[in-house]
Every structure is written in C-alpha cells, then in structure tokens.
Amino acid sequence: MSGDPMVGRLLERRYRILARVARGGMASVYEATDIRLDRTVAVKVMHPGLGDDQEFAERFVREARAAARLNHPHVVGVYDQGDDTSDGQDTVFLVMEYVPGHTLRDVVRKEAPMPPRRALALLEPVVSALGAAHRAGLIHRDVKPENVLIADEAHGGSIKVADFGLAKAVSADTQHTATGGVLIGTVSYLAPELVVDGRADARADVYAAGVVLYELLTGTKPHEGESPIQVAYRHVHHDVPMPSLLQPGIPDYVDALVARATSRDRDQRPADATVLLHQLHRVELALRDGLESDPELAADLLPRRSPEIVDASEPGNDTMPEPFDASALALLTEVDPRDSGLVDDGSPDRTTAIERHPVPAGATEAVTTTAAAPVTQPMRAAVPAAAVAEAPTEATRASAATARPATGRPAGKAPTRIAPVTTTARRRSRKGPVALLLALLLVAGIGAGAWWFGWERYTTTPGVLGLDQAAAASELEAAGLTAEEGEAAYSENVEAGLVIATDPEPGGKVLDGGTVTLVLSLGPERYDVPDLGGKTEDEAQDAIAATNLTFGTSKGRWSETVPEGQVIRSVPKAGTTLKPGATVDLVLSRGRKPFEVKDWTGGDYDAVKAALEKRRLQADAGEEYSDTVPTGDIISQDPAPGTVLYRGDTVSFVVSLGPELVEVPQVKAMGVEAATELLEGLGFEVRTEQADIYLGIGYVSSSDPGAGDEVPKGSTITLYVV
Fold first, then answer.
1. 619 has which bridge partners?
2. Are the CB atoms for 580 and 71 separated by under 8 Å?
3. Which residues of 74-112 are buried (b: 16+ CB within 10 A; e: fewer)?
4. For residue 55, what pLDDT is reported?
5. What's the CATH fold of domain 594-656?
6. Of 24-33, 338-347, 353-362, which gets the smallest average pLDDT?
7. How far apart are CA 720 and CA 129, in angstroms?
8. What are 159-176's pLDDT values in tens digits?
9. Cα separation of 333 and 182, whole Å?
10. How confident is the model at residue 310 (pLDDT cuts 50, 70, 90)?
11. Where is the chain membrane-spanning (predicted)?
12. How confident is the prediction for the chain on average, in pLDDT?
C-alpha cells in the first residue's frame, strides 16, 4: 500500500516491509523479507502510539511467548519479537510464519453450506491445534474463521490457527477483567459464561469451534442481532439450533456433535479440544461409513439436560445465573448499559438438541406417562420436555375415561332411561374408592419405573483424572463400574501412564455396572531424529515426515567418503528427541572436493610438494639434467595444468639436476688434431691458441679448463699450442 509509512521500512536492520496484507484493531500484518535468512515472513506491527501503552505492549509480548510455546504443524509459528526505534518512536512487532493463501472465512463465503465431511475435514486441524494449546495450558479465546489460515495449493494447502494475541495461561481466575472490564473475543463466537461472568477456560474455545462448525454446515451464524449486545444475549439465553433445521440432510449424530460442543452449560461440553477431537473422529468415522443416522452415537453425544435447562423450556424462565455482565458488553460496543436492551426480547427459543433428537424409543416408553405421578426434580432432568408437556393430556384422557357413565354412552346425549339417584350414588360409593386406589397404584408404579429408568439406574462417573490405570480401575470398580482402556493420547503436562480423560467425562452419567473408557497419557509427544546417513535427500525427507518432524533446509558439504547427493548428517544429530513439528536440517554430500592443477614448471619442487600435501594430494618426482633449468626446479609435470584432481591423487614432476658435468681429459703433449678429436668426442667445443712460447711444432702445451676439471657438457675447451 503506497500510502502506508511502514512499507519499505527495515525493522531492526533485518526485516524489510513489503506490503500490508491485513489490518486489525490493535495491529497490522505485513508481508516482509528477512534479509538475514533470505526468507519471506509475516510481520505484525502494533499501531502507532499503542507501543507506548504498557498494557498493549505486554499483550503483544504475551502473544509472542504464548505462540512460541506451541510447536504444532497447525499453529502459525512465531519466529521473533522486537521493538524498533529507528524512526524516533517505538514500533513493537512480531515476526511470524508467512502463510500465502486465504482464510477459512473465504471458504465459508464460497462453499458454505457444505457437506458434513468437508466441514469436519476443515475443522479437524483447527481442533487439533487447539488441543495442543490446551495441553500446554493455553486457551485461544478468539477462535473464528478469520483466524484460520489456509495455504494455497502451491504451498501444500496446510491449515493453521493464527493470532494467539488473546491467548492466556489457564488459571482459576481467568477473567475478562484483565482487559479493563472489556470482553475480548468476537461476539458471534463468545461462550455464554464469557458474557455472564467473564470466566474463560478450554471449554470456551470448544464452544467457539462448535459455532464455526455450525457456520460451515449452514452458511450462517447461529445467533444474529441488530447489535453485538443482542447477539451476546442470544448466546446466553438461546441454544444453538440444530444445523439440520436449515440443511435437512445432515445426520442426527452431526447435529448432536454441534449441540454437545455449543451447550450453554459448559459442564456438558467436552472438557477441552482434545476430547472434542476424539468425538469429531467418531463422527468422521460414521460419515465415512455412509450412515444417514446413528441413534446410539447421537444419544451418546447429545448433552444431558440439567434440571435448570428443563425448567427453561417452560415460558418465562431464565436458564443462566445472574449477574448478566451488561457493563462489560456495553464497553465492548460503546453502548450505555441502560440502553443495551438486555431484556428478554420475547422471542421463542429455538429447537434444542434434546427436542430435535429425543431419547431412544426404549427409554421413551418408560417416561411418557410420568405426568400421572408427581414428578420429582431428579426425574425431570432425564425426561424430555416434550414428554413432560404431553403426559398430562394422556392422564386427563385416562381420568375422563374412568369418569364416564356406566352406560358407556357418549357425553352430551341424553339417556333413554334415567336410573334412580339413590342407585347411582350407591354404585359410585362402591366402585369409586377401588378405582381411585387402582389409579394411585398404577401411577405409583409408573412413577417408580420412570424414576428407575430415567435416573436411579444411572450413576455419576467418578473423577479419576491424574491417577494411574490401576488406581483409576480400582476407583471405578468401587463405584460399580468397569474400566476399559481407550486409545492413549499425548499430554505436555500429564506424565505417561496417568489418566487425562474419561468417557463419560468426570461427573457424567453412566449406567450402573457400565463401562468407563480411560484415556491414558503417553507423556509429552516427542520424536527421535532418525538416522539419515547415506539416504538421498528425498528418502531423508520422507523419513523426517514419518516421525512427525519437519524438514528444514539442506546444505552441501564436500565429502571424501559419502557419495554425492547422500546425507552426511542431520542437524540436530540422529537420536535427538524433539517436539512434533520441530525442524530437522540436512547436510548433503557434494562428493569429493575437486582440485584444479596449476602450472608449476620452473618452480621450486620442495615448495610445490609442501603445498600439495596440505591439500591431501601426493607429489612424485623424477630427475633430469638440464642446461636451462636450475638445479631443484621443476622441468615438467603430469597431469597438465587445468586438469581436475581429488584428494589422494598424485602429481608427477621432473626435477632438474642442472647441467651434466664432464671431466676434462689430459691432452698435454698431444698433437692438436688428436686432442681436438678427443675433446669433441666428449661433447666439448674446442678452440686453439698459440702458447707464449710458440715453436710451430703443433703440440698442446696446456688446456683451459685444465685436465681433471668437471665442466658442463658442451663447454668450450681452449688448447694452447707450441
């Protein structure tokens, strides 16, 4: 964006800002280049002036630390955090993984409503990422389609959860008051408890994920209003409707999954995203099997209606505890609490999960007539609202049938004969008490049966989280239940072998003598770097991916032992234990290091030999006489200059011994012709001169060089003749 002063800046002499890709209420996100590592990154820059606000700056730093704690393939990684003051003001920024592509919001606009299998495939990585955060003790608090990034096909199409700016460590006092009394998060995805008392835990993320699933399935948000306050009000007072109301082809068990995740009673929701992921996988399996309906799975997933929720089906009853945090909502939307409209709008509640999918027929028969007996509060918790509403009609009909005249004539018609009043009164006095007694016995029996089938035969699942398998099984056996080991799961904060979840959850209802599935911790999810030595780069990348690690980069190194293209070693080294998604780099062999032969002729052999040995090359030398090359210098070499050699190869040289020396023979008193012939035969040049005493007899008196001297072959010998 040409008018953006950030574009073109170099933050901390490392991050070159290229273009703005997104803008939020607190910060803008830019595409940038890390000039030190030569890679594209995303830089999130706090808006000007906010860096001076200590609260905003601390939240920004908290985002960096929170996201850096998560090393997961479906979480956007945070690389760096800094504060640039080069322009005279604080520019607080985060450096994050750049995900080129689009957001889940774009997919909702283009594809929703979509088939359940497609919706769950998009949601599964999101829930997996949230599960990793929850295991690390973090909650996201702003789960929405805009914070789900989807890479384009050229970059693998991976799905990643971004923006942990609202993430916070889970504690017993996690409330909105940390932000000055203002609710944080997006109102369309706020869990009811966040609106009522501001408390947030992992189940708030679960609620938001359930709303996202509803939106994927239907193409609309579950609660809408003219203002954010009205939307928040509906989250508190109205159940999320069943997706099948808008898309009738959706199976009952998918409806149940949405209902479970978005239950207004957070105790009815999955305890965290890891549990939700397990339930999501069960629904995916049913979808893969092509089941149009699965009443057992639906009944298992549907939230169990508490007594308060049953009462809520009756007009005029509120279902959530006060106080309703009107002030916080008013701050959220800058509306005076007195004008917030936080009153019952009189609109009927939408169909709830239990009304849409009542309990199985076997259980219905036991409870449909319970209105004939006094309904106790525990029994009402297990009776669907429809059964409670309809049962009085059946009881009324039974009473009407009992009270009909003995003649059996329809009401309203006059009888042909009227019996004496005294006789009629006598008959009623005999049969009335008996009929009443039978009716009371019948009602009592039906009530007892309903109490048994609807409540008493269930027991509460004991809390065995944190116990080992033996101790958990013992606790369950003491409660009359059977323990069954389920599929184990990784946990960052629960040591291996201890229980991290149960199905049903702690406090949930289970039949007496029923089975409780234990999910045992595998401990922190860790993987050892495999031994990659000798593998090709492709084979090594496959091995890294198979161990849930991430391939980073490859660097080439010369190797005299490892063939070109094969892995020399990995960084970190083989056997190192890492978190899932951690990066493993490769060092690949470039083969033997080549060495280009230079022209060493005329150089000193000893110096050349020392230089070659430093490069782990061998030198071999022969010797020859040379009249032109000084002694010890190189006359010739093999191979010729420009040839490529490798370590251990040999270069052969011919080293000069200097000129060949020949001893001058004794030629004194020899005739000039004889002496000249002898010296020339030895390779000398001969020159004659007259001696100081010249007699003309033609004999040699002396030579220069003299007899016995060694001179180079070809030298000139001077003969002095008398």
1. 651
2. yes
3. bbbbbbbbeebeeeeebbbbbbbbbbebebbeebbeeeb
4. 66
5. Trypsin Inhibitor V; Chain A (3.30.10)
6. 338-347
7. 110
8. 999 876 544 444 333 333
9. 9
10. very low
11. 434-455
12. 76
What is the number of other CB atoms lying within 10 angstroms of the CB of residue 461?
20
Going by pLDDT thresholds of 50, 70 and 90, the confidence category of residue 431 is low
pTM of the full structure = 0.46
User: Cα dist. 73→66, 130, 707 in Å?
Assistant: 16, 12, 96
Check residue 452 and give its pLDDT: 57
Task: Identify the burial level of 242 via C-beta atoms within 10 angstroms of its C-beta, where 0-12 means exposed, 13-18 middle and 19 or more buried.
Answer: buried
Q: Considering the domain delimited by 10-97, tell me its CATH architecture.
A: 2-Layer Sandwich (3.30)
Q: Is the pLDDT of residue 616 over 70?
A: yes
Query: Active-site residue among 38, 53, 106, 142?
Result: 142
- Judged against a pLDDT cut of 50, whether residue 241 lies above it is answered with yes
Phi, psi angles (nearest 5°) of residue 180: 75, 25
The answer to whether 186 touches 194, Cβ cutoff 8 Å, is no
Residues in the chain: 722
Q: Where in the chain is the domain with CATH 1.10.510.10?
A: 101-356
Please give the span between the terminal C-alpha atoms of the chain, in angstroms, as a whole number.
110
The answer to whether residue 670 scores a pLDDT higher than 50 is yes
pLDDT of residue 54: 65
Q: Where along the chain do the CATH 3.30.10.20 domains lie? A: 459-520, 527-589, 594-656, 661-721
Type of residue at 432 = G
For domain 459-520, give its CATH number from 3.30.10.20, 3.10.20.30, 3.40.47.10, 3.40.50.720: 3.30.10.20
| CA–CA gap between residue 140 and residue 112 (Å, rounded) | 24
* Interhelix angle 104-111/202-218, nearest 10 degrees: 30
**Residue 142 designated active-site:** yes
Domain 101-356 has CATH 1.10.510.10: yes
Which residues make up the CATH 3.30.200.20 domain(s) of the chain? 10-97
User: Is the pLDDT assigned to residue 534 strictly greater than 80?
Assistant: yes
Q: What stretch of H or E contains 151?
A: strand 148-151
